[in-house]
Amino acid sequence: MFINLQAAYWMIGSLFILMFILSTITLSIKVNKKRVEKKEKQCLSEFRSYIHYVQSQLDNADRLRAPAKKLRTFEQKVLQKKLVQLVDQLEGVHRQKLLTLCDDIGLISYNRERLKSPWSIVRIDAAYHLGILRDSGSTSTLFSMLFRNKIEPSIYIIARSIAQTSTSTPEMKSLLRYLVENGKQDSHLVADIAKESEADLGTVYAEFLNESKLEFVKVGLIGLQNQVDFHIPENIHRFLDSDDREVRILAAKLLTISMTLTKEDVEVYMRVSDWEVRHHFAEWIGNAELKQYADLLNQGVQDTNWLVSRASAKSLIQLGTKGFEIICEVAFGNHGEQGREVAQEFMEEELKQSIHRFSNLADITDYNQKVYIYQKYFGKSDEYLIKSI
């Protein structure tokens, strides 16, 4: 009994000591954080006039001057934090001018030294900043750092920095290959990282479409959506028959972005077996206001899939009086019973909404045209009186 009691006392005492140590550490961290924040605030206050000078001189042709005094390490960190925020907000010549200033201040050499730190968190932070500073001289070091690290979230920070610093197409191709082949790949994340590069990646994305591994194909399809001037390969349509759902959707999006489709192409795509592809094309016709494809939405409203039917009806409404007449035809039953209920709903809702959209003569004329079309199929109705002007 005495031994058990003594053991309990020892346990309680040990817990109190442990709690005291943890409390002391926590308090020390909070105090240190407060002290650093106060020091940063004071330092920023000293830099206020200089930061104002930088912002006001960005439009001038002259090179931005560095601070008059030599900066201590802490001052470099504080000023870097502010300048990096500005770099992220700027583009073109303004950003380049600010990047030159960062080099003059010594921020690039400062972060290059930090890449040699024994602490992983310091190296990752340095890689992050060198990416924002677009330091092309660090690309090879960042690649070595990437290859040494295990596949974990931090490698995407390094990878993004490589994309920001590299202007070489072969380097970017190697980076994308490494991420796809060695990571727990997310094709959208990989393509998003690639967007940070100034290298021309159109040919790389096109090559990826011929890879057997689907993740490469996905990265290629996503990447080509951002290559406005790149000639889209003509065989993209083959991916609409892929067994992978995401590949089919990405291919459909790329086809509509390319805007090189014929009416015959769209008619085929509105009949593919994947309802999500049909849904995408139905939405695209309305959002892009492609009135030349209005009659193709006729079959879309009658689609057996409810979502495709509604998307097609909505797109017809977006196409003005031409689309509204097709909606009335379907609602009247000229094409059978399929889709008739959906067409009726959208037709009546559009007439009700049009009444509340009057703001000029064109709105009233548009409404009167729709009422005329409605009456052509369903006869006179007191519910939809033609507005006189």
UniProtKB/TrEMBL annotation:
- TM spans (from-to): 6-29
Alphabetically ordered keywords of this record: Membrane, Transmembrane, Transmembrane helix
Say which domain of life the source belongs to.
Bacteria
Give the InterPro entries listed for this entry.
Answer: ARM-like, ARM-type_fold
Q: Which SUPFAM superfamilies match?
A: ARM repeat
* UniProt name for this protein: HEAT repeat domain-containing protein
Q: Which organism is it from?
A: Gracilibacillus salinarum
